[in-house]
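Colleagues,

Please find the record for the two-part complex below.
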Amino acid sequence: MSPTLIVDIVITGLIMAGLYSVMAVGLNLQIGISRVLNMSHGEFIMLGAFGAYLLYTLLGINPFVSILIVAPILFVIGFLIYITLFQRLRKRAKSMEMFEMNSLLASFGVLYIIDNIALLAWGSEIRAYTYLANPVNLLGSIFAANRLVILLVAIVVGLALFLFLWRARWGKAGRAVAQDLTSAQLIGVNIDTVLALYFGFGALLAGVAGILISMIYTITPLMGMSYAIIAIVVVVIGGLGNVLGGLLGALILGFIASITMHIDMALQLSVFYAVFMLILLVRPQGVLGKTYG
Amino acid sequence: MQFTGKRATYIGLLFLVLVAVAVIPFYTSAYIYIFSTTLFMYAVLAVSWNIFCGSSRYISLGSAAFFGVGIYTAAVLGDAFPLPIVIVLGGLVAFLLALVVGLSTLRLRGIYFAIFTFGFGEFLKHTVRWYEINITSTLSRWVPMTDPVITYYTMLIVLLAALLTSYIIKSSKFGFALQSIGESEEATHHMGVNVTAVKIFFFAISSTFMGLAGAIIAGRWTYINPAIAFNPVISFTVVLMVLVGGIRQMYGPLLGAAILTIIAEVLLTEFTYYYLALYGIILIAVILFLPSGLLGLFARKGVSKSGGILARFR
């Protein structure tokens, strides 16, 4: 194995891990704090991707600037969906387990509705734009600049989220809710707001992931499911609702992706699912388990 | 058990329905009985899903895996064996596969079991696709076509078998064991029931019917590929049908399958462009407003109006 190949695998692995961690972290918050295994997560990724695509092709707005426009809009959509649908389900459910199952099924309804609207609005053709695609030489391996920028954005998003969860008041409230909903309520956390807030954050982060994806891959209104599934795999590997575990899951999957890319691209998804099922069977609580330190 | 007047009426009605269903291909257009075959197919899937998942409360999102295995069995062996053998083999392969997958119920419950079974279906889809592209150098396969009338009757027979199995299990010792697992798995174990064996056996029985349905419908679809055979939407649709009709009730899945297949057909032909959204709205409305399914509307007592779908389920 030549040194260039190793550099290639490691850096590609890190880039994929960065992308996967942004894709998964929103879902992780939605599961861990809002208690919704949101199957429509991929649709928010798709909406983010189309937002960036439209702003870039129609108005020439730089995708990084469109993060500031698209992400808040998705936050509001996510927040409203939680208030109108999932909050109602939660109030009616007799137990948390019942709510989790009901909300999982209801999120499929949300998925179908968003897909349908997107298909009506944008048709089913495949789209793409090029932005920052110039090659960069890194230790003898060539990478497109936009892929390296993705890694940077992923690190920034990770740090910002970490600071928010551990330092900000609303972040602490979120972690308290993740640990124990009832106790959090007893010490005065307004759980209705917190659950809706973090569902909105999940949609926002999905939007950011979608914008990153639109820079390097083609996009269609039906792209969501395949990304949502990867996000679920990452989250399950790390442990449902464990943000740090999600990072580990993203690293594991990122390197699997990077290695399979060099062996047999077609095998990638099969290997993902095999690892997913294996980890689920061996450690259902995820590699790191459910902890909010 | 007394043979009361009410019971006689039921049996008479059942007999009439059976006769009516059996003569459909002779008196109606091809469209009607081909559509009915699809309806029966979903009914088989929903009834068999309910056999295991309804009672045990293990929610499987992996119906497409076993259904798809049946389809692929028919595709691979369709030329080599006569139709009845192909169909039986489709069920057998699904049965054997389910024995292995059922082992996962030893470790996974609730939401984890749901995503595991979903992941299993996707794993099969991508692995079959990889195999087809790299080993057989094709993506799709052709299945020998069967006469639509034969497909109709075989599907009807399998549906009746599934209903009969569901009925027998419901009033048998093992059926009670399965229900008791749904109430409290630990308590059932302490009562001396071999929980593992019961779970795996019923999961395999339920999957067998899905494999049979796949092997039969393959002869009508004729063109298949991994995305068609292992379509995850089928898994969700089946769960939705059971929930709409009423979970843990004999005729709930049958009713749900019939209603949703008809609604889907109408939506698809009348509102082609809004089909998905309307389906999504129905799904959400059912979860919000019909906690125990349509049959729940007629239930006399013990059904709460609130509590989401799993009210009847907890």
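Residues 257 and 265 of chain A are 8 Å apart (CA to CA).

Comments are welcome before we finalize the supplementary table.
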